[in-house]
Specification:
binds magnesium ion, binds guanosine-5'-triphosphate, globular, 12 helices, two-stranded antiparallel ribbon, alpha/beta
């Protein structure tokens, strides 16, 4: 039913287990309590323990020094990074670049990891991955790189609607569990776009609560994925181009408070001249807000 490890059960809510396993609420609570004892997750932790776990956090090179600097070294595992911005602002391009870079060795700012992509807009392009691999700086051992080797470590699934998208996130957990002890454990999951289906399917005021509830569950599944696999969760999001419905900022990210509160980092991307893009860091827990300029070239994300 999508729970592939004791840890996954330990961090589930009774409601989730009730729905998945057709057991009563009391039984579900007992199962969860049992799993927690064995898995030793949850409860209070002292700051030094948290610091210890934070030491495992990996940072993934974005390809742009400016962007890395803005992000305190790169995109962090165990966190949700939301890229939002208008069409053509570079969200999908940055996602492709991260799918390449996470595979690199640590000397090059990668995590020697593999990638799972949930593609809701049919915008994954293996050809772009190949171009970006060709555009990488030379490898330290002087070896030629084969784009096919990179494509092998990227698993892509199309999500046809929001329910399918939620299911795919659950089966991603299974895949990651299997890859855990392999050469390339999953260190990155991309959902491009995380909100499009929800936005298209739940129209009208009356459906909003339902939509937010589902989106909330989905995001928490993803967060759990990130924690259990020490992976980065990279999601993209559109902006609403409806200035009449909002005062102030005419470009508000979709997803409302649910996404706003769950995302660890929010990066607002804007188009500038030609290949130039501007990234603004919004709402980071430990970094100052600020901006960075990067470019989207045929060879990928650069300064
Ligand atoms: P939506 O998904 O439509 O909301 O937009 P997005 O933010 O995902 O846009 P995306 O990342 O797909 O950016 C598309 C833009 O990237 C194009 O308009 C080009 O400016 C740029 N781009 C894409 N491929 C190439 C390429 O091969 N070379 C160069 N130089 N630029 C490219
Ligand atoms: Mg896109």
């Amino acid at each position: 039913a999508g729970f592939n490890s004791i840890e996954a059960i330990a961090v589930a809510s009774p409601g989730e287990l009730v729905a998945a396993a057709e057991v009563g609420e009391a039984t579900a609570s007992k199962i969860i309590a049992g799993a927690r004892e064995v898995a030793d997750v949850g409860g209070f932790e002292t700051g030094d323990r948290i610091l210890e776990r934070r030491r495992l956090v990996g940072k993934i090179n974005t390809g742009s020094k400016n962007l890395n600097e803005l992000l305190g070294g790169g995109m962090e595992t165990q966190s949700i990074m939301e890229l939002y911005g208008e069409f053509g602002s570079g969200k999908t391009q940055v996602a492709h670049q991260m799918a390449v870079n996470v595979q690199l060795p640590s000397e090059m700012g990668g995590l020697h990891g593999s990638v799972i992509i949930i593609d809701t807009e049919n915008t994954f392009r293996p050809e772009r991955i190949a171009q970006m691999v060709k555009g990488l700086p030379p490898s330290p051992d002087g070896q030629e790189r084969d784009p096919a080797d990179f494509l092998k470590n990227i698993s892509v699934a199309r999500a046809f609607n929001s329910n399918h998208q939620i299911l795919l996130a659950e089966s991603a957990m299974e895949m990651a569990e299997k890859a855990k002890d392999s050469d390339y454990p999953v260190r990155l999951i991309i959902v491009d776009s995380v909100t499009a289906h929800f936005r298209a399917e739940y129209v009208g005021r009356g459906t909003l609560a339902n939509r937010q509830q589902k989106l909330n569950k989905h995001l928490h599944d993803l967060m759990r994925f990130g924690d259990l696999n020490n992976a980065l969760i990279l999601v993209t999001n559109q902006v609403m181009a409806k200035p009449d419905t909002f005062f102030g900022d005419p470009t508000k990210p979709v997803g409302g408070h649910v996404l706003g509160h769950t995302a660890t980092f929010r990066l607002y991307l804007r188009k500038s001249k030609g290949e130039k893009r501007i990234a603004r860091l919004v709402d980071s827990p430990n970094l100052p807000d600020g901006e960075a300029v990067f470019t989207v070239t045929t060879e990928g994300v650069k300064d």
